[in-house]
Amino acid sequence: MSTADRPRPHALLVAGTTSDAGKSVVTTGLCRALRRRGLRVAPYKAQNMSNNSMVTAEGAEIGRAQWVQAVAAGAEPEAAMNPVLLKPGSDRRSHVVVMGRPHGYLEAGEFAGGRKALARAAFAAFDDLATRYDVVVCEGAGSPAEINLRQHDYVNMGLAQHGRIPTLLVGDIDRGGVFAALYGTLALLDASDQALVAGHVVNKFRGDVGLLEPGLRTVERLTGRPVLGVLPWQSGLWLDSEDTLALESRPHHDPVGGRPRLRVAVVMLPRISNVTDVDALCLEPDVEVAFVRDPRALADTDVVVLPGTRATLDDLRWLREHGLDRAVCAHAARGGVVLGICGGFQMLGRSVHDPDGVEGAPGASADGLGLLDVCTRFDPAKVLRLPRGEALGAEATGYEIHHGRVTVGDAVPFLGGARAGSVFGTMWHGSLEGDALRRAWLAEAAALVGRQDFTSGTASFGAARERRIDDLADAVEEHLDLEAVVGLLEHGAPRDLPVVRGGLA
């Protein structure tokens, strides 16, 4: 059956003029808003390029953003919601995950051959979701106007063509030039792709929306497509992000009652992964979290976090090149707390070995920082699981995504890892999202560094995530023409949309 002959699924594509325009935010808000209407909703992103990922109940790895969108939709997260996940290991090479399982590597220039197989997997997953859910809300990647990639695209307009999916184009007004971005993106698409772009959304607006009206009406007149809403800037709002672009949006707190804060420095590794591990710390009212690259920033902090990484040996080399290895060891020597998570934990050990070239060149090896009596050896088989246990007298949960096999010597076990004094290492991502474990660990860390006046917060991280999602849905319902969106889901893009004359139209 040809694409034209198949029944058109009830789906919507949220595309953006740029990366970080707000596609994930709009998609998440729509998932919750449509769920409130009693619809069975599934999120979907054909291909995600991110080192922030999550493990589903089926033992599959998907992008963290799609996991959160599934939570917003009230759906069980599954591999089909993010069938292709690219995890960059360098500027030109990515580890490929297909339907939640490792699928080799993809070089930067490998489009024609490698991408065809990925497109088939992505389209099959979309078709499957469309048969099981009332609505599929799709998130694009980057911009649909990346015309150098259009021939093999299956994430933006290639996906839209596959499912005849009406498309919303989101522009970020906070960057400036939003009117040119909306018009120019559309003008760079060919006529068949333009026919599926049914409306615009302006995101991150601050101020009086009345001031935008002349520009909005002009964009509507020039493109023949309505602006379906202007979403306001929402201060302090962030979601589990796909990449490191949104790190600066993590909230910061003023001191509570004048008490001293517990200061936490998170080392911004070049190939940082699962940076969402520290999100729960950012919500603690008496914890100050900073993301740092300068070793001098570790001199007056209480806790140093070495987060996960997609390239442990490369980032360990980077630590040494920038003197951060010495700074971390000096911090530990004076009694400061160190927490290593997954790859960061592996760096704290005695040695790291990669005999099969899982992360890079076969046979690569390096000494670790020597703060924990552990050794790591990479294995081609990836560990994907949702562990449960106990630490510091509190119930603990998390998720594991790693190739490294850690052998623990003379150290106290800690969350799939090890502890020696004030140095902690764990293979469990997401453990600090557990309220009891987070409070117990913060109390332990504060005691170790002599912060006797430290007080943990009482907020639930899970409840805070739900509030963020509900805030997004409230904004979508208030500021977007949701009836028009539902109309697009039911009837598709209007047939009489004009062609905008531009470079390729």
Automatic annotation (TrEMBL):
SUPFAM superfamilies: Class I glutamine amidotransferase-like (SSF52317), P-loop containing nucleoside triphosphate hydrolases (SSF52540). The keyword Nuclease does not apply. Keywords: Cobalamin biosynthesis, Glutamine amidotransferase. Pathway: Cofactor biosynthesis; adenosylcobalamin biosynthesis. Residues 263-434 form the CobB/CobQ-like glutamine amidotransferase domain. The active site is at C342, H429. Pfam families: CbiA, GATase_3. Residues 13-237 form the CobQ/CobB/MinD/ParA nucleotide binding domain. Catalyzes amidations at positions B, D, E, and G on adenosylcobyrinic A,C-diamide. NH(2) groups are provided by glutamine, and one molecule of ATP is hydrogenolyzed for each amidation. Belongs to the CobB/CobQ family. CobQ subfamily. This is Cobyric acid synthase. It comes from Nocardioides jiangsuensis.
